[in-house]
Design brief:
76% helix; mainly alpha; MetI-like fold
């Protein structure tokens, strides 16, 4: 009993230290984005003496960083639309219907959680390039829309928790399968979607590998690639640390806000889906 309590305390302390370090680093980045380069180099951890917004002007106006952000938002919106449409229908079929290959298909999605997309990048590249989408945002959106293993398994667990009596009652009233799915089942998925959508959004926003492989034209690149270019000094004035801090702050702020708003729903959705699945 004492040993388990000691382990619990140790884990809590480690997590607390990790969270504290993360908060300090994030705070330093955001404060650094509002400092001149000279002040940042001499006072990296302190508060800015005054709010310096020229870094943001440099990033958005002079360097055109807004274009990269817009590309990321387009990929995020398109990927979410495709992934949600596919995962809600596929998981519904896996949860509520019996057909040949059902267990094999479920196993396929479980395997999809274990192996990264990098393992199939050669074949994926052939498919995307064969569709003439090798250097377009639409190609990235299609790839993201197909990466639905996690969302399918979470939603499948939620569908299992929905009583079949609801569908049967709707059938007695003359409703077809599509009507039952659209008007009876989907409205009940709000808690699950509160978990799935933020998780997918974080994944798409932070995705670096797929856009790096498929996007070569600068005007098509997304924010993670732009951050890399800034950190490697490919843009003018990238030797200035304050500019790099500004780019990092701008890139992580939207997803931080998203997670802070939906963190409870994400945890609740995953937990409920696992319990019911």
């Amino acid at each position: 009993m004492k040993a388990s309590k000691a382990i619990s305390v140790f884990i809590s302390v480690v997590i607390g230290i990790y969270c504290l370090i993360t908060v300090i680093l994030f705070a330093a980045v955001f404060m650094g984005s509002m400092k001149t380069n000279e002040e940042l180099l001499t006072n990296i951890w302190g508060l800015p003496k005054s709010i310096y917004l020229e870094n943001f002007k440099k990033v958005f106006v002079d360097d055109g960083f807004f274009r990269y952000m817009l590309n990321s938002f387009l990929v995020l919106a398109g990927g979410l639309f495709g992934a949600v449409a596919l995962s809600t229908t596929v998981s519904y079929g896996l949860a509520k219907f019996d057909f040949k290959g059902k267990k094999l298909l479920t196993f396929y999605f479980m395997i999809g959680l274990m192996f990264p997309v990098q393992l199939g990048i050669v074949n994926l590249s052939r498919v995307v390039n064969g569709m003439k989408l090798g250097n377009s945002l639409l190609g990235i959106i299609l790839i993201d829309s197909a990466a639905i293993s996690m969302s399918v398994l979470i939603l499948r667990g939620f569908y299992h928790s929905i009583p079949d009596s609801l569908s049967e009652a709707a059938k007695i009233d003359g409703a077809g399968e599509f009507t039952i799915f659209a008007r009876v089942i989907l409205p009940l998925l709000k808690p699950a979607m509160g978990a799935v959508i933020p998780m997918l959004a974080i994944q798409y926003w932070n995705d670096f590998f797929i856009p790096m492989v498929f996007l070569t034209r600068d005007e098509k690149k997304t924010m993670p690639i732009a951050v890399m270019k800034y950190s490697l000094g490919e843009h003018t004035d990238y030797s200035k640390m304050s500019i790099l801090f500004t780019v990092i702050a701008v890139s992580i702020l939207p997803i931080m806000i998203l997670y802070l708003v939906f963190s409870k729903k994400i945890i609740a959705g995953i937990t409920a889906g696992a319990e019911k699945g």
